[in-house]
Every structure is written in C-alpha cells, then in structure tokens.
Fold this sequence. Notes:
By secondary structure, chain A is mostly helical. Helices cover 74% and strands 0% of the residues of chain A.
Amino acid sequence: MTLDVFIAERQGRWAALEAAIKTAKRGRLRNQSASDIERFGLLLRQTSSDLAIARRDHPDAPITEYLNTLCARAHPLLYRGRAWRLGAIGPFFATALPRSFRAAGPYIVASLALLLIGFIAGWVAVDVRPDLRASLVPPSLFDEMARGQIGTGVQDAPFAAAFIIQNNIRVALICFAGGMLLGIPTAFVLLSNGWMLGTVAAAVRLGGYDVQFWSLIVPHGVLELSVIVISGGTGLMLGDAILRPRHLRRADALARVAVRAVLLVLGAASLLIIAGTLEAFVSPSGLPDGVKLAVGAAVGVLLYSWLLLAGRGPRRRRMFRFDRPAETPA
Amino acid sequence: MESGQFDTISVRTSDNVTLGYNIAGLGSRLVAQILDNLLAIPLTLIAVLLYGAIASVFVTSAEGATFADAGAGFFAGFAYFGYFFVAEAVTGGKTPGKSAMGLRVIRVDGSAADFGALAVRNVIRVIDVVVVLIGIVVMFFQPQTRRLGDLGAGTIVVRDRATVTLASAVAPPPVMLRTPDAGPPIDGLDHIGSFEHDALRVFLSRPGLSQKLRADLAADIARRLLDRLGLPPGAPERLWPPELLIERVYLQLDQRHR
C-alpha cells in the first residue's frame, strides 16, 4: 500500500480519534458514555495498529510521527489506575491504612527506635550534667510550672490548634519526603524530637513536676508521637528502597514503595487534626491530671487496636492501586 | 526515535505497539514553573491575607496572636505547595504553567498519573524546592529530566501537544513534469519497494527547487535507482533522462502497490 493510499483510506479514524481526545475533560473520559469510551478504545487500537504499519513501511514519513503523537496523547486517557472517589475514603481508613501500617512494621519499629535513642540520650545528658539543664531546657518552663500556670488553658485555643496541626503535618511530610535524601533528614527529625522530649522529661523529673508534665504531654502526645513515628517509618522505607533496591532498579524500587508510603503518611497525618485539637483544648486545660492521663490512655488503646486489628481477614475487593503488585515499567 | 529534536521514552502498550513520548526539557519545565509561580504566589498571598483577616477578628490575646502569626507562616507553605498538587490532581497532570507549555505529567509506563503518584511527587516537591533547589540539579543530571519527586512517584513530564498535524503530515501531491503516463514496463521493479516509493514521492512533491538543483538531484537519484533495479548494461531505461526515469518508476510502483 502506498503512503497516499494508506493515509487516504485511514485518515477518517485518525481524525475521529483526534476529535475524541479533544472531548476529554481534565485528562479523563469520565464524562463520556460507555459506548463512546468503547469507541475510543477501538479507535486507539486501530490507530496504534496503523502506527505499527507506518513504522514498518514508512519509518521516516511525517505521518509516522503524527500517528505516534496521536496514540501517545490518547493512551493515558484510556490506561490509568483505579479512579479515586470520595467513597473510597471509608474503606481506606477501615482496611487499607491499618494494613499498610502493619506492612511497614519493621520500618516503623526502626523509626520508634530512633526516637527512643534520642529520648534516652536526652535523658542521660540531663541526668549526667544537671548543670546543663538550663541550656537544654527553656527555663521559662520551670517558672510556669512553679507558678502553676501550665495546665490552666491556652487562650485562643483554635489558633493554637491550627498552629499545632499545621506544624505537625509539616513535620510528618518532611519525615516522608526526607526519605528521598536517604532518610537522613527523617532520622534527624526523629532523633531531635526524642532528644527534646528526653531532656525536658529528665529536667522536670529533677524539678519534681512529673505528673504535671506528663498530664500535659500524654493526652495528645500518644497520637502525635505515633504519627511522627509512622511518618518516620515511611521516610525510612523510601531511603531503604534507594539504598537496597534488591532485584529492582533503584527508581523502580523507590516508585514501588513510595505510593504505599505516601498514602500511609497522608492517612496518619489526618490523625494530627485530632491530636492538635487535644493539644490545644485538653492537654493545657484545668481538667484533673487523672482525667488527662485517662484520655491519653484511651486514645492510645483506640489507635493501636485500630492499627493492629482492623482489616484482618480475607480481602474482599482490591480497593487501591497499591493492592496490586506494582507494574514494572518497560 | 521519532523526532530528533527531543529525547523520548518508549512505552510498549498492551497492543504491543511502542509509543514514543517526547520528554520535556529542563528549559520548558523551568518556564512552566515560573508561570505557575506567577499564579501560586499571588494565590498564597491572598490565602494568607484571608487567614490574617480571620485571625484579627477572632484573636483575643497576645498568646493567640503569636500562634496565629506562626500558623499563618505554615499556612502559606501549605497554600503554595497545595496549589501544585490540587492543580495537577484536578487536571490530570497539567498545572496551568505546564498546560501553557504543552507539558503533562504521566507515569513512566505511559498511563495517566493517578492520585497517589501525584501526591508523592508533590510532597517531595518540598525537598526539591527547599533544599537548595536540589530538584533543578537532579533534573540537570537525570537523563530523563526527572526531579526527585518524579523519581519517587514513577512519573515523568512529557510534551503533550501535537507537533505534527494530519494536514502537515500529508505531503503535497507529486508533480509530473515529464510524462503523463507510466511508460513501458520497467524490469527489476521487484528489487525496490515502499522505501524507494516514499523517497521518490518526496522528491517529486518538493516545491521550489531551481531547475538546475532539481536536475542535479534527479541525476543522483536516477543513478542509485538504476543500481537498485539491477538492469542489464544495454537496457533502454539507462538512456532515459533522469527525471523521466524517476517519474515512470514512481508511477509504476504506485500502480503496483495500490
């Protein structure tokens, strides 16, 4: 078949495919009827077979590049992962998120270990050199505790909550994204958060404000530290994928864990809204210390029974792209 | 592969056809980024001003004002980076800047970038931008101009715009100057095929060649054609003027392949 005949015979379907591409809104065909999408698939298959013929018979003709561009523009409209809908949020929190949490177990344990190392180091530092206490811990903290000012409520608590939530989400996302730099920023965030908590905890112990202090930390801290540890775990996942890609190429190993990890960190970060609200409204409030500690314990029990127990049992439906084995790009 | 001026990645489709995607270069990526900043920065400012306005109405204490100020700073960051995520998620991989430059985010396997992939590349955008613009450095050295966020998400930014239109891909009709018909049958046409046919067609439909240039080119092409046809030394075709030979060979091939 000559080029002229080839083009004359088949350009109708190419024009039809081109027109169909233009009807796609926002890079998807969702607004179209089933028969239109079926027709789109047919046109794309026909055109890509034309492309294969053109490559073989007319490799240098401009029509070959035209057909390639046409197919390349149409391909992602048809080939895509499962769509994300609002209705998927429920199953995501009910099953997918706890499963991802358990799947990331070793990384989350490693992340917790880093936080604890920081904590112990901070504690020991203050214990060994109590004279350094003043330089490690803001002295104002002790003044406030001594005057009994802490635990009398924060003024403008909604703004305190907004500030706290945003700060913690920022830290969680940095923990995740730091995985791209081999997890070094992630480890730093974990160690330094542990260190801060350790130094302050040891210092208030010296001052004898233990109960006051922990009742100030525990109600929100259980949730907040858990989220930081989970985020740290996702960052360590990325770093590990880069350092030890095993049988995959580094880029593929990374892309394979990253989507699972980002969903885990986004899901976990949404818990920070609860944590921040507790931190602004409950932790500094005038409630009895026992109530505050009980709130923290209840939150902890709920959190970990959800993360450890939810979504066990057989999988009914594959809800999310990452439930499938990741495709390896050609 | 297809067009020499761009780097491409090849994607093998389920129909076992290889598609070539033109990879967006560092230059167009940066221009798209600048265009997006022209939108994102004013939007961020507006968001922060709104936040401040709300705070000034409701804040009642100095302590609250401190929290509100610090919160506004974080809010600015979320608004700025949120712009890129929302824009990509809503449009299927094209921020307004990318759209203006004809760029689009897709996954390296050629499928559309989904919510998860866009979330990864936009969370990691913070590292790409904040850590001494490491994203630009990585894009410069990465053969496919991918930044860290692209590497993490398994995405790539490609040129989405049609470079060749159907009309421009169809060559103008060939012009026969020498002969109205195909002439006597030429031996040895079995030795040549669609490649020669396409080449002759390009020559015959080329406008604006001076007569001398056209004659020179024709002589060169005719010499090669005679070689390929494998005609015996005394064949009459060897005595035809080059342009006549080319036109007749073309017309005979055209009939044969039609």
